[in-house]
Design a protein that fits this description.
A: Elongation Factor Tu (Ef-tu), domain 3; Elongation Factor Tu (Ef-tu), domain 3; globular; disordered N terminus; B: Rossmann fold; 8 helices; nucleotidyltransferase (chain A); sulfate adenylyltransferase (ATP) activity (chain A); sulfate adenylyltransferase (chain A); EC 2.7.7.4 (chain A); ATP-binding (chain A)
Chain lengths: ~425, ~300
């Protein structure tokens, strides 16, 4: 093996974050186990450890779920409580899996896992077809604006690998998904247990002409998932070295959350509304010709204007929306329900404000997507449309336009817990 | 790859820098826990990048077990000088002497677990409200469910069932008086990512990571280096082998692997074909199925 070549390839890989959702017994753990195993991401000592534990608990087979159930309580109760992150790589891509439990009471975990994902895998048992949980998972993927969805029809071996079974499930899902906001949907018949169409093509399902799951994961087009049009640079921190060498240096540290910034570009900062030009884009490795998402850089500007943490730098011809009345879809993450008229701390990009809950418009039935207008109690795992008023204006985009400048969290001011996840409409 | 597509390693770098800047802005007194190991070396480089051209705006702190590889300590001091950072060292030995910690019973006690006491005392002494660690989620399964911002109560404990949900890139560092956070900017990195980053950035690392001749004893398939902290048990003998270490830590529980990898390129090849996790060679993790979870709950790194 030529190492320099290997290193070069490794450094050229891109990154796909995906989430897996499924209900109990649909083979999700087996599927992840197979992806990890076939891509050599499971090590011998991990395998030996789960073999030992499987024997002790008398499972009779090597239980791949033990790989993902990391906490003692989970192993004892045989359930997954929390989002677990897994990693594997092929020569093309590095993958981060957010493995989330599928029970209804874990909507908050699904939302958490989905919030950073480019792609969602939704598993269906071929014998059961589309069930309530399938719809719920797909709805959450759509709500969280995951751009790509793969519907894996699993356990095809138990329905004799019949094409009709797969086609029927596909049609059913197509009918349902027309109500969703996901454009790129893939359908794959698999058997995670036997390995059909996961990494290797299935012989018994030679009728299936599409790619295997790994092929889709490796090739789905994610380069355009970042917003490269609407330039947004929330300022995290002001960099002032005050050293002899950089005596007058004043730079703005942050991560590009949208668009492309270049030296010489006209900019406007909010909330001040001052305009200026970008002087340079600085990093320890040297000045850059341009910065794009999700790069962390330091920007210097031509004029000496007051910019601080929580401010945003945009382009004069393409500005954020601004205001104090924020309309959003909210997922509630805490046992203590949302208090109508209640006050919460709110974090949006690098900005901290407070807000008051002005109106709960409706709650969503996450299985049918119907609006429930007569029950407005938003409790743990509920999703609803709410309106808040903030103490200071936010400079934001709709979540559909930009996931990072369109998202926010609500924090309980007494316990400091993160209690709500909001997507601005 | 298209022009506006950042490679995975650059995305991970950017994520870690973003997190370090959030911590420096959200907290009053952060500290970077530094062991001289490869992950903390990567952390120091990321911290330099996050605040450049300003200096790293927080000190580094080493919780010293006294059971160190000499090479690591001299390397640590050099790096600190190079970077121009402030280094704080607190010793497990002092915690034992003052009666705060009790040395484990038996032959060759490990001080790995005792670090927790010294660490929590130091956090209180300096009133640190956030401590950066280099831990990664791929290291161990209890770590796979760890947050970037990991909340610790006033006893420094981790409650795995009551973690704050972490969505998008919004990190909630709000806390009550006396509480603190552990922050793990390398959460999404793998062992391979760390090695590739060391190669990409041309970072120096302590010599014990490279293949060398060492007198070792094989104890329950963990190869321990000969040192004054190790006493032979009945039937054990020392032998000389060509080895290297995949992690640095307390000499009483950090095992070597037999290896000829004497360059970064060879290490990368070895990691690529490795079939044992890096913590697989650590005696402290083999104590029980939930060894890491238990130590983390008590306030371990």
């Amino acid at each position: 093996m030529d190492t320099s070549q290997t290193t070069q390839e490794y450094l050229n890989m891109d990154l796909l974050r995906f989430t897996t959702a499924g209900s109990v017994d649909d083979g999700k753990s087996t599927l992840i186990g197979r992806l990890l195993h076939d891509s050599k991401a499971i090590f011998e000592d991990q395998m030996e450890a789960i073999e030992r534990t499987s024997q002790q608990s008398g499972d009779g087979h090597v239980n791949l779920a033990l790989l993902t159930d990391g906490l003692r309580a989970e192993r004892e109760q045989g359930i997954t409580i929390d989002v677990a992150y897994r990693y594997f790589a092929t020569p093309k891509r590095k993958f981060i899996i957010a493995d989330t439990p599928g029970h209804i009471q874990y909507t908050r975990n699904m939302v958490t896992g989905a919030s950073t994902a480019n792609l969602a895998i939704v598993l269906v048992d071929a014998r059961n077809g589309i069930v309530e949980q399938t719809c719920r998972h797909a709805f959450i993927a759509s709500l969280l604006q995951i751009k790509h969805l793969v519907l894996c029809v699993n356990k095809m071996d138990l329905v004799d690998y019949k094409e009709e079974v797969f086609n029927k499930i596909k049609e059913d899902f197509e009918a349902f998904s027309s109500k969703l906001d996901i454009k790129d949907i893939h359908y794959i018949p698999i058997s995670a247990l036997k390995g059909d169409n996961v990494v290797d093509r299935s012989e018994p399902m030679s009728w299936f002409k599409g790619g295997t799951l790994l092929y889709v994961l490796e090739n789905v087009h994610i380069a355009s998932d970042f917003n490269l049009v609407d330039s947004r640079f929330p300022v995290q921190r002001v960099i002032r070295p005050q050293s002899d060498e950089y005596h007058d240096f004043r730079g703005y540290a942050g991560r590009v959350e949208g668009g492309i910034f270049k030296p010489g570009d006209d900019i406007v900062t909010f909330p001040s509304g001052f305009t200026s030009k970008i002087k340079a884009i600085e990093t320890l490795d040297g000045k850059l010709e341009e910065a794009f998402p999700p790069m962390s850089v330091v920007m210097t500007i031509e004029d000496d204007i007051d910019i601080s943490r929580g401010d945003v730098i945009v382009k004069p011809n393409n500005q954020s929306q601004s205001g104090q009345d924020i309309d959003m879809m909210l997922c509630w993450l805490n046992e203590k329900p949302l208090i109508p008229g209640g006050k919460y701390a709110l974090k949006h990009t690098s900005k901290d404000v407070r807000c008051i809950v002005k109106d709960i418009r409706y709650k969503v039935d996450i299985n049918t997507l119907h609006k429930i207008e007569d029950d407005k109690k938003i409790g743990l795992n509920d999703i609803g449309r709410i309106l808040v008023r903030t103490t200071n204006p936010l400079f934001y985009d709709s979540y559909r336009k930009n996931r990072n400048t369109g998202s926010l969290i609500l924090i309980d001011e007494f316990t400091n817990e993160t209690v709500g996840a909001g997507m601005i409409i | 790859m298209s022009r506006y597509n950042l490679t995975h390693l650059k995305q991970l770098e950017s994520e870690a820098i973003y997190i370090m800047r959030e911590v420096a802005s959200q907290f009053e007194k952060p500290v970077l826990l530094f062991s001289g190991g490869k992950d903390s070396i990567v952390m120091v480089r990321l911290a330099q990048k996050a605040f450049w051209p300003a200096k790293i705006p927080f000190p580094l702190m080493h919780i010293d077990t006294g059971h160190n590889f000499e090479e690591t300590i001299s390397f640590r001091d050099q790096l600190v000088e190079q970077v121009g950072a402030k280094l704080i060292v607190r010793y497990v030995e002092d915690s034992i002497k003052s009666g705060r910690a009790v040395e484990e019973k038996g032959l060759n006690p490990s001080r790995n677990g005792l670090q927790t006491i010294t660490l929590l005392d130091a956090v209180e002494e300096f009133q640190f409200d956030a401590a950066f660690g280099g831990a990664r989620r791929d290291e161990e399964k209890a770590r796979a469910k760890e947050r970037f911002f990991s909340h610790r109560d006033e006893f420094g404990q981790w409650d795995p069932k009551n973690q704050r949900p972490e969505l998008w890139n919004i990190f909630n560092g709000k806390k009550h008086v006396g509480e603190h956070f552990r922050v793990f900017p390398l959460s999404n990195w793998t062992e391979m990512d760390v090695w590739q980053y060391i190669a990409l950035e041309k970072l120096s690392i302590p010599s014990i990571y490279f293949s060398h001749q060492r007198v070792i004893v094989n104890r329950n398939n963990v190869l321990l280096g000969k040192s004054s902290f190790i006493t032979l048990l009945d039937g054990e003998t020392y032998e000389e082998k060509t080895v290297r270490f995949r992690t640095v830590g307390d000499m009483t529980c950090t095992g070597a692997v037999e290896s000829d990898a004497d360059t970064l390129e060879k290490i990368i090849q070895e990691v690529a074909s490795a079939r044992i996790t890096e913590r697989g060679a650590r005696a402290d993790d083999q104590r029980s199925e939930a060894a890491m979870e238990d130590r983390k709950k008590q306030g371990y790194f």
